[in-house]
Each structure stands twice: as structure tokens, then as C-alpha cells.
Amino acid sequence: MDRITLEPSKRGGKPCIRGLRITVHDILEYLASGMTEAEILADFPDLEPDDIRAALAFAAARERRLVSIPPG
């Protein structure tokens, strides 16, 4: 998770990739829109394959913390 940075002065403090101005949300939106990893990497040469995996892992961990089903 050291690839995900939080800086109040960048992108409103949203989680970014390695201090770049590319947010975790940006990566997730690109993937959700159907872009492949290769297309994302071609469009953003500063990104590395591990950055995309880190964004997915960050989102999965955040989801795991936020979502819980009350006992029924």
C-alpha cells in the first residue's frame, strides 16, 4: 500500500498513486468503463502495473472496512 499516498494539497486529499495527480478513483473509473490495464498504462506512462493493482487492493480493503451486514 506504499504506492497510495494522501496529500491534502493534491486532488483535495484524495488517495493518489505514488504522489502523482492520478487518484485511486480515476483508476477504478477507467477500469469500470472498460479500459484494459494496457490501455491505462499507454495513456498514463507514469503509471506502472503495480499501481493499478495497488488501487484495486486499496479499494477492496476500504470496501471491506465499510461494508458489513448486520446479523439477521
How would you summarize what this structure contains?
The protein is mostly helical and 72 residues long. Helices cover 47% and strands 6% of the residues.
Question: Could you give the topology of this structure?
Answer:
Elements: E1 4-5, E2 16-17, H1 24-32, H2 37-43, H3 49-66
Helix pairs in contact: 1-3
Which short descriptors sum up this protein?
mainly alpha; Arc Repressor Mutant, subunit A; 72 residues; two-stranded antiparallel sheet
Describe this structure as you would to a colleague.
This protein is mainly alpha-helical. The chain has one domain: Winged helix-like DNA-binding domain superfamily/Winged helix DNA-binding domain (Arc Repressor Mutant, subunit A, Orthogonal Bundle). Helix content is 47%, strand content 6%. It contains three helices and two strands. It has helices at 24-32, 37-43, 49-66, and strands at residues 4-5, 16-17. It has a two-stranded antiparallel ribbon. The protein is globular. The termini are far apart.
